[in-house]
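One thing: mind reviewing this one?
=====
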Amino acid sequence: MKKTIIITLLALTPMTGWAQTNKYTIHGNFSKVAEAMSKQGLSFDSVTLVNPATPEVVAKQSIQNGVFIIQGMVDKPYYAMLNIGISSEVNGEIKRKNSRMPIIIEPGDIQFEGNNRVPIIKGTPLNDVLSDVTSKRNAPDFIETVKGLIIQHKDDAVAIPLLLMLDDSMLESDTLLTLIRQLSEDTQRHPHVAKVKGKAETLLTRPKEGDMFKDFAVEYDGKTTRLSDYVGRGKYVLVDFWASWCGPCRQEIPNLIALYEKYKDKEFLVLGVTAQDNPEASLKAIDEMQIPYPQILNTQKIATNLYGIDIIPETILFAPDGTILARGLHGEEIEQQLQKTFNNK
């Protein structure tokens, strides 16, 4: 009997030690911020830990007086999101919104300090890496620092949020793809990394300046309309990809109307292409803003997918033969491009 007990205890000991080394605790402190927010009718209500790869809700805790604690076990460090719930009462109605923060779930005592101007998560090795580089966002060597850290931690979960710090405005698509290919296979399969990779591949292969236009056709109200009905027919055509629900799109349209009126006698045309929009809503917006130039309605994702557009408004200027002269112009940039184009004729 005594031997059995001894053997059992010995068998349990390694597992107990393993459990302790794989335990994580997140201590969150927003006490000072919570006090200030309460004076504005705002309050923290809960914090939710989410694994974006699943996406699984790992844990959810209430926030009491700006403080919370989350504990758990982790086999292998992984990238997660902390969603901080904020509540407010407006005209007797409770409204909620989330503030999101990246975090690495790894063994140890993770400190989430939310009383500073910029919240900080630190206390464990990978979270310290993320916290340190976040504090250097305005440094002149920020991009190179992040690139170096991504390679250094290519097999670690922290590579994911580091990669997400570098968008396509910071790096050329081919550079971004080269960086991604150096990550571990598991990291490359993560949905957030896959999204960045897919966007970079789209930007790399989408029609660019000097390329011939790609045609598309859509149907609406029993009629088929093609881009080639307007582009490649001897006129300069400025194509505006927009939607009625898009605020920045509607803000740009008065400028496009003015340019259309100014240059329409110079073999110039503005063409609207509605993207991911209800045709009836598009027509209503066209009537409200009194848009005088032609439109291709109901393209949904056909046109934007073909031209690698993920943010609208987007403009593309086509030459009379249908080649792309410029794209991605906004505001005064459009006017400058048109002046350059017509002055060189």
Remarks:
- DSSP finds twelve helices and 15 strands in the chain.
- The first strand starts at residue 23 and ends at 29.
- Residues 1-19 have pLDDT under 50 and may be disordered.
